[in-house]
DNA sequence: GATGAATGAGAGTTCATTCAT
DNA sequence: TATGAATGAACTCTCATTCAT
């Protein structure tokens, strides 16, 4: 009733929304979109099934929100890497280490599905791909910077950024949480390949 | 008694099986396992739904057969690369080009799903992972050979093989057939990174 | 948090369960287990198909619940006969009359199927047979009592109970509701056979 | 081609038909009509599925043939009892013993299903019931004869016949082949009940 | 006649979504 | 707003029947 309550309501709503998205991310990454039941998401979020629909209009809607949030978070993360002090190697190293510590693998899985699956509407695919490409810029900037300092091999920076990110994604997909078979030290080795002097 | 030709029956059976698997590979790669209806597979194979079950006991069974066949085919392909004449670079180049021309991207998608999804029985996951690791050997052999000739950067050969394959997979997943956005020339650039003298 | 009335929910749930079982009993008795569609049960219960599965996990599960409930109800009924005042003949007469008025014929059909069909899991068969045997006790008690008073022919009481119940079942199966061909007076004649003085 | 062959063909055909019916009887009695697959019948008969349809037009057709044959066989059996030498007790005893040694239980099961199930066309039900009633005559004749000799309790002979047969059927359904729990001696005890002097 | 692969309608079961409380 | 019972379309799998060989 009072403005205070309204504000609080808004905040509660945002929290619930975020909480639902967190659960959805985890579950969908683990089982895939169409194998995930809305009930699974609800259970993990500690919310009733019906209540989910007060925050999202459909399962697809949740997925779409997940992609938006994931790509935005990734953008922030990539810019944080670019904002790091030190050499290009230091920055990429920071990026690499933190990538593995974050839930990037989960988002990576979702994005890949979004880009490749016929079940996803074209509109969404295009948005995701465009945003993905745009999100390469901070990495490309780091690489360009490194090339100017003579640290990094020559080549088109966007191309190298794509190669590097693909490599990270590819390795990520072989190194699922709970499957520690492949040492994460390998990511560092991969990074070496980009360096001029190795 | 039996007016049927047993040999011919056997042969027809094998053909049908293979035809169903081909269709299943295409459709599942495009839509994901659980979003693919058995009816989709049947339709693409030009077979009735019921008849599918004369050849496979369930959708899961089809998926499993697909993984087996895919990993076997990949093994043959990797060994063919190892069997090529020429330098390590030539061999990897052959591998790279042919990877992109084959249906490797489809199988890559399936294998990734098999390794990562909670919906896949542990037994199958382990088998897939073990076979995957084993399948790195021909690539590792090419790399080792190249290292001895001074062509390829130093480092543990299995590790470099994993990095290289991950890179290919990562790129593959950004370059779906029908989505020619990313030039396949990029794969060649990626290959350069492994070379000592670049 | 929960705007629902838990007690009322519990009660509604129990009612629905019972309502579904009632319908299932009728329909399965009329058509047999495997010829009965879950949709038939749902329709007769005035419930949607999907909702049935909120109460029972499968058609088999419904059948099993039906057997449990039916044998328990029969036990109560048999003990009520034993609890009647009067001579053994009076008690058996009460039993006979009420048997025909109740839905015993439906349950009889189900139990017979459960005992004899290969499609029923051994575990369930054994449980049903054991309970059936145990349920003969009240009748055997009436007979023993009648023998001591000189009303009833001599012989092992459990054996005579089995004979009597089999007779009732056999007659029941010739006298389906809606098929009034065989007068129910015949049951009384059958009862006479057990009496010493006839 | 030659008349000889034609005759032989006829004979082979009759044999096959009978062989299929035998298998059908066994399997349907064990699993129920609708739970029995035509493939089950074919397998047990050692015949291909398709070939069944050269002899019968449908599963229902097989069932109907089974009922006809079963009731005819039963009639022959009942008349054979009537044709036995000796007292009424001897004849009923012969009937009882041979009933248990024959496949009467299987036919009993089928007939019961035919009479009671909604899935059976009315026309067939009526035919079965009429024939059943008619088939009581030989037993009723034995009973009447016994009554005249003072061996058997008084009462309407058809009614007593129905009671006796129901008793046999009821006991039969508690004493499935392979379930020897209930001693078959009990049938003799049941017979005693009909005797005047016991 | 004999075979068994092929068909497709139909059954059991699941699950996204709605709605009364 | 929160709940979970209810709905029914859709999916997987089965099986009576047909048909090419």
Q: Tell me the series of helices and strands of chain A, N- to C-terminal.
A: HHHHHHHHHH
- How would you name the oligomeric state of the polypeptide chains in this document? homotetramer
Give the strand content of chain A: under 5%
* Count of individual domains of chain A: 2
CATH topology of the largest domain in chain A: Tetracycline Repressor, domain 2
Structural class of chain A: mainly alpha
Number of strands of chain A: 0
Mind summarizing the main beta sheet of chain A? Answer: none
Point out poorly predicted stretches of chain A: none
Gyration radius of chain A, rounded: 19 Å
Distance between the termini of chain A: 66 Å
How many helix segments of chain A?
10
CATH class of the largest domain in chain A: Mainly Alpha
Largest interface: A-B, 42 and 42 residues
Helix content of chain A: over 70%
Q: Using the alpha-carbon principal axes, give the shape of chain A.
A: elongated
């Amino acid at each position: 009733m009072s403005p205070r309550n309204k504000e609080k309501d808004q905040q509660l709503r945002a929290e619930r929304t975020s909480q639902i998205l967190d659960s959805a991310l985890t579950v969908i990454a683990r089982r895939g979109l169409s194998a995930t039941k809305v009930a699974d998401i609800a259970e993990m979020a500690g919310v009733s099934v019906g209540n989910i629909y007060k925050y999202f209009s459909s399962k697809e809607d949740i997925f779409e929100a997940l992609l938006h949030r994931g790509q935005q978070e990734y953008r922030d993360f990539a810019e944080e890497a670019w904002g790091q002090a030190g050499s290009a190697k230091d920055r990429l190293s920071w990026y690499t280490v933190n990538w593995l510590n974050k839930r990037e693998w989960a988002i990576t899985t979702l994005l890949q599905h979004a880009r490749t699956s016929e079940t996803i509407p074209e509109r969404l695919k295009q948005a995701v791909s465009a945003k993905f490409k745009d999100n390469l810029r901070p990495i490309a900037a780091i690489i360009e910077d490194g090339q100017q300092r003579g640290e990094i091999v020559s080549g088109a920076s966007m191309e190298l950024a794509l190669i590097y990110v693909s490599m990270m994604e590819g390795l990520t997909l072989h190194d699922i949480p709970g499957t520690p078979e492949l040492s994460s030290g390998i990511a560092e080795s991969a990074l070496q390949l980009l360096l001029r002097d190795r």
